[in-house]
Structures are given as C-alpha cells and as structure tokens.
Amino acid sequence: MIIEPLSIPRIAEVIALTNTGAPHLLPRTRSDYWAYATLFSTTCPVAMIDQRVVGSVIAFRSQDDPDDIYIQDVITHPDYRRRGITRTLIDTVAGRGVEWGCRRLYLTSEPDNVSAHAAWTALGFTNAAGDYEVGGISVITDYKGPGRSRAVYELPLDPA
C-alpha cells in the first residue's frame, strides 16, 4: 500500500470511491475535490494498491481552532476493508496533526451509523458526550445546524 496526498489526477478516482459509501457518504463536487487537492492535500491522503485508489480521507485543520483537525470524509473500498487501510490513513492525518502541534482529530457521524461507531471506537476515538443517545451512541442536537444532530468522535493527539 502506498499513501500519497490527494492530487488533481486522482479526483475522479476518489469521487468513484466515495460513491461506494452511500447512503452515509456521498461525493462532493469536483470543485470541492480540486480545493482539497490544491489547498489541503497534506491532510487529504489517499491509499493506493496496484495503482488504484482504495481509500481516502478528507480532513482540514480548523481555522477557528488550529489545535483541531476535522475529518470530513473517510472511505475504504468495500473490497479492501479490514486490511488496516483506514487506520493507516487516519494515522497519516494524525501524524500531520502532531507535526503541527494539534491537540485532537475529530469527526461527526450519523447517529444511526452503527458500523461507523464501531470503526471509530476501534481506532481509539471516543464518542463525545451529547444531550441524548441513539442505540447507546451519544448525540449532540443540531451540531451541524438545525435538524443536523450528530454523533461526535474525538481522538486526542500528543504533540510532545
């Protein structure tokens, strides 16, 4: 497996890969991926096997709190799951965060996405306390705006 930053020539492959994440994950626009590849590539790694994109993370350092890196999207091709690809991609982003002195990675998930909850907790993320629970998963009401309640997951980084 080779990990490389997202680049413009890989955009179509990442969009195709992201299409495999429905219904919980859908691709963004080509313009969005252009911005990720040109402005945020060091926190948007892709995993390559046999010159094929099999995993991708889209993440950004927060402008409001530069101690944080927000992970927007994570996808591993269904044929390549359970091979450590997601862990390697998250470790890549975490490594960048440590280099920058960031204190945490965080992400949000649909409250009913039980498989995502299992993946995040297996990777060391904790489910942040919310104001109610869905199936044992803590949820914050209106986290991403009215009607957009989310489960929030955090992974502390040790910038030492």
UniProtKB/TrEMBL annotation:
It is an enzyme of class 2 (transferase). One of its GO terms (molecular function) is acyltransferase activity. PROSITE patterns: GNAT (PS51186). InterPro entries: Acyl_CoA_acyltransferase, Bact_Acetyltransf, GNAT_dom. Its EC number is 2.3.-.-. SUPFAM superfamilies: Acyl-CoA N-acyltransferases (Nat) (SSF55729). The keyword Transferase applies. Gene3D superfamilies: 3.40.630.30. The keyword RNA-binding does not apply. Keywords: Acyltransferase, Transferase. Residues 1-146 form the N-acetyltransferase domain. PANTHER family: AMINOALKYLPHOSPHONATE N-ACETYLTRANSFERASE-RELATED-RELATED. This is GNAT family N-acetyltransferase. The lineage of its organism: Bacteria, Bacillati, Actinomycetota, Actinomycetes, Mycobacteriales.
